[in-house]
Structure formats: structure tokens, C-alpha cells
Write a structure and sequence with these properties.
Blueprint: H1 16-23, H2 26-31, E1 37-45, E2 56-63, H3 66-90, H4 113-127, E3 130-136, H5 146-157, H6 164-174, E4 177-180, H7 181-187, E5 191-196, E6 199-204, H8 216-223, E7 228-229, H9 243-250, H10 252-264, E8 268-272, E9 275-281, H11 287-299, E10 313-319, E11 326-332, E12 340-342, E13 345-347, E14 352-354, H12 356-380, H13 386-392, H14 395-402, H15 408-411, H16 420-431, H17 437-441, H18 445-459
Helix pairs in contact: 1-3, 3-9, 12-14, 12-18
Length: 464
């Protein structure tokens, strides 16, 4: 049954029955008029050492209309079945980790990035002496070659020629169009200047954006001039319901080649979306030649695919003959100074920590939540002074949004109640003794929230 999205977009709401009729009729799909994706940028500041400013990064996120999403989701399921079959036939299903359901060894539930990281670190520990290559594909989704993707699509589905419905989906997820959400909402009068706490800020000037953001007449008059199309021969929208399986599908031949190469070396290969990890036993491997070889194999898929040099590292792990401890030495790259960084964690050969950038993201989320809480106080208590506002600030409410919750042991198995704290507790449980440092990394967090709120209140000139 189709899942109906309830976010604001260009099309009207529809029932599950209407969605099922649409996606179940290939002729309707082949003639369906797809709307532009609405796009926004997810921005963040990268982690930097104390006293330095982190580099500002952004990632474009695009989301489709309700009907379009239902179609993309339906064809994602069709492609997923064919893709899983292709992985099994090639014997590489353990190498591709992201966007798939991979059962835990217990058979209860599926693995997450925590389990994938734990598996990789455990293998390194078992090997003792090894070289570990950690690489990242630069602008992965934006670099996917359309001609190669079409060939992979036909290959796994067994098509000599794409049927009209499949071709319609392929065409609209490659030659897609977008509209900036900010420009759209400004044009429709949803966003503008307003006064908050004596300051003029840009924000929403309506209480709620309508489910269907505009009529067809307004769309033609105000939205059409804002639309931009992807005229490149590469790139798929990150955020669409089908893009994840298409990204995996695109890498099928690369994954096959890398699994074979790793096996010939007695090692292993893993890929989680654009993160590649190759583990080779011993220290004799020519790491410079190996990096060139991996890059050549990748660019054979399309000249736009490249390994990101700033995120490429090679670490040498060794087992001490005297202490029995594992030693970790970075021999290539600028990242991972204190250990191998993989899927949000850092491994020094013996212990596992939250990666610095993971903690940085937590700090960013905390800052946004604190700011929202402080501005809420300013809005609700315009006559209060700084001291009173500070006493009214409720740090526990902020904590519950993404950090430790009361009686977390009782709710940790309920995904809808997970916070960053429960995620950290889960990571420690999966990682065992090696993950104990994670708890120490999150100490004094409540104090940091109160300190940031007090600073924001003190910096507000509109209150006495």
C-alpha cells in the first residue's frame, strides 16, 4: 500500500486507494506529469579545533510531490527486488550496506550503521596487522552518469528496451526540475520580514503552510519562472524515494570488482553509500598504487565519479607483541589523526569514540533547539527581564528533544522515542567494552545547554 506524504507541495492530497490505482497502472505512470522537486539546503559547519572556524558545508535536499513520491516508491520496490537478486547471484550482498535491510545475526531486526561500524572494527582487531583504506566519493548523487544508470536499470530488470512506465520514471528522476523552497515561499507570501523581540528577522509570516501550496493558475503565474531543470548528463536528486536504490544500482559493477580485489588480497570491502572501506591484511600492500587502482576502477563508471582527496585516509594497524594492544598509525591523509573514522565513529585500535564531527552535529542541533526555546520565551514573556527569562528557561525540555530522556532504559527499544542519548547508549551496548569512551564524551551536556541559553539571553538587547 502506498505511503502518502503530508508535507506541503504542489499537488492536492490523495487517498491510499487513489495512490494504489495510480502506481498499479503502467499506462497511467507512463503518462503522468511529474511536478518539480522542491529543494532546500541542509547546512552545517564542520568540526574544527578550539579557536578555529570550521568550514561551512551544505547539501541540497530535494523532495517530490505526493503522487510523484508514490510512483518513485513503487518503482523503488520493483528495482530493489531485482537488485537484491543481482547481489545474491554475484555473492556480494555483504559488501553493500546502505539503503538495504540486512538482518542482525540474532535474526531480530536489521543492522544499523552502529552494527556495520562494529563489524568493521572487529575484523580489524581480528586481523591484527593490516592496512585500512577509508575513502569517500565526491558529490556522489550529483555525479551519477545517466547513460550508465539506464544501462544498469535495464540490466537488472532484464530489459532490452525500457517499457514506457519505467522510462517515464527514469526520465523524470534524471532530467528532473527543481524549485528553491525559499524562493517559492517568498513568491507565495509565506515567508517575509517580521519583528521578533525587537529585531527584524526573516521567517514565516503565516501560521501554517497549506498542504497544496498553490493552485494551477498561481503555479503557472508565479512558480514557472522559478523552475530550473537539470540539463546535465549526470546527477539524480538526493532525497527522492528512489534515489538510494539507484545509487546502489549504479555502483553494481564497481562493488563486484572491489569485492573480487579484496578477496584476492585476503581482505574485505565495504561500501556505505559514498563511504568505502577496504581492509588488507599485513603491511606490504603498496598503498599509493592501491589508491590509484581504486580511483581508476571508479572513474571507469563515469568520468564525474572521483575519490575526495581530503577524506581519503590509510591507517596501519599493528598488534603490540609486548602489551597485546593494537596500535593505529595514519600513513596517508589529513583526517583521522586520532584513529580510523567510519560511519560516525572513531577507532584507535582498542577503543571506539564518537567522531568529532558527530559531536559537532550534536552541538549544532543543541544550538538550534536552544535558540528556538529562547526566542519562544522572548515571544511569550515580552516584559520579563534577563534574570527572570533565565529562570524560566527549561533545560530539561531541550534535553528531551534529542538527548537523555527520563527512564531511557524503558524506551530505548522504541524508535519513535530515541534521542541522541539513547543512540549513544545503543552504540555502547553494540560495541561492548570498546565503546565505553562514548559515555565519557557526553558528560556535562546539560550545563552546556544552560550556558548557551544564558549567553543568548544576555546578548538580546531588546530586554532590560
Amino acid at each position: 500500500m502506498a505511503r502518502i506524504r503530508t508535507y506541503p507541495h504542489f499537488d492536492a492530497n490523495l487517498s491510499e486507494a487513489e495512490a494504489d490505482v495510480l502506481v498499479g497502472d503502467p499506462q497511467k505512470v507512463s503518462k503522468h506529469a511529474f511536478f518539480p522537486f522542491i529543494e532546500y539546503s541542509e547546512g552545517w559547519t564542520k568540526f574544527a579545533a578550539k579557536g578555529l572556524h570550521g568550514k561551512r558545508k551544505s547539501r541540497p535536499i530535494k523532495y517530490a510531490s505526493r503522487r510523484d513520491s508514490c510512483i518513485y516508491s513503487h518503482y523503488r520496490e520493483i528495482l530493489s527486488v531485482a537488485y537484491e537478486s543481482a547481489l545474491a547471484k554475484r555473492g556480494i550482498e555483504r559488501a553493500v550496506l546502505a539503503y538495504r535491510r540486512i538482518p542482525k545475526a540474532s535474526g531480530k531486526g536489521n543492522k544499523s550503521n552502529i552494527h556495520f561500524a562494529a563489524d568493521a572494527f572487529s575484523e580489524i582487531s581480528r586481523m591484527g596487522d593490516c592496512l585500512v583504506y577509508a575513502l569517500d566519493i565526491s558529490s556522489f548523487f550529483e555525479s551519477i552518469d545517466h547513460a550508465v544508470l539506464k544501462q544498469r536499470w535495464k540490466q537488472v530488470m532484464g530489459f532490452s528496451t525500457m517499457p514506457p512506465d519505467h522510462y517515464s520514471v527514469f526520465r523524470n528522476v534524471t532530467r528532473y526540475s527543481t524549485v528553491s523552497r525559499e524562493k517559492l515561499y517568498r513568491a507565495l507570501g509565506f515567508i517575509g520580514s517580521k519583528n521578533v523581540g525587537g529585531r527584524t528577522v526573516t521567517g514565516y509570516i503565516i501560521k501554517r503552510v497549506p498542504l497544496q501550496v498553490c493552485s494551477g493558475k498561481i503555479f503557472r503565474k508565479k512558480v514557472l519562472p522559478l523552475i530550473s531543470a537539470n540539463s546535465n548528463a549526470c546527477g539524480i536528486p538526493q532525497g527522492s524515494p528512489i534515489s538510494d536504490v539507484l545509487a546502489n544500482l549504479y555502483m553494481l559493477e564497481f562493488d563486484t570488482a572491489m569485492v573480487a580485489e579484496a578477496a584476492s588480497l585476503g581482505g574485505s570491502y565495504r561500501r556505505y553509500s559514498d563511504d568505502i572501506l577496504l581492509t588488507v591484511p599485513g603491511h606490504a600492500d603498496d598503498w599509493q598504487a592501491r589508491l590509484k587502482s581504486i580511483n581508476s576502477t571508479l572513474t571507469a563508471l563515469g568520468s564525474n565519479l572521483k575519490i575526495q582527496p581530503t577524506k581519503t585516509t590509510v591507517h596501519k594497524f599493528s598488534k603490540s607483541s609486548t602489551s597485546g594492544q593494537h596500535l593505529c598509525e595514519r600513513i596517508c591523509g589529513t583526517a583521522g589523526r586520532n584513529g580510523l573514522e567510519y560511519l560516525g565513529f572513531r577507532f584507535d585500535g582498542n577503543r571506539v569514540f564518537l567522531r568529532d564531527s558527530t559531536r559537532s552535529r550534536l552541538q549544532r542541533k543543541m544550538t538550534y533547539t536552544v535558540k528556538a526555546a529562547v526566542w519562544g520565551l522572548l515571544r511569550n514573556y515580552p516584559g520579563k527581564g534577563r534574570a527572570e527569562l533565565k529562570s524560566l528557561f527549561n533545560a530539561d525540555l531541550v534535553l528531551r528533544k534529542f538527548y537523555k530522556v527520563r527512564d531511557f532504559e524503558a524506551v530505548v527499544t522504541e524508535p519513535d522515542k530515541w534521542t541522541f542519548w539513547t543512540y549513544a547508549i545503543r552504540a555502547q551496548k553494540v560495541l561492548g567494552d570498546s565503546g565505553r569512551p562514548i559515555g565519557r564524551q557526553l558528560r556535562n551536556f546539560r550545563r552546556s545547554i544552560v550556558h548557551k541559553a544564558n549567553r543568548l539571553i544576555d546578548a538580546t538587547t531588546a530586554i532590560p
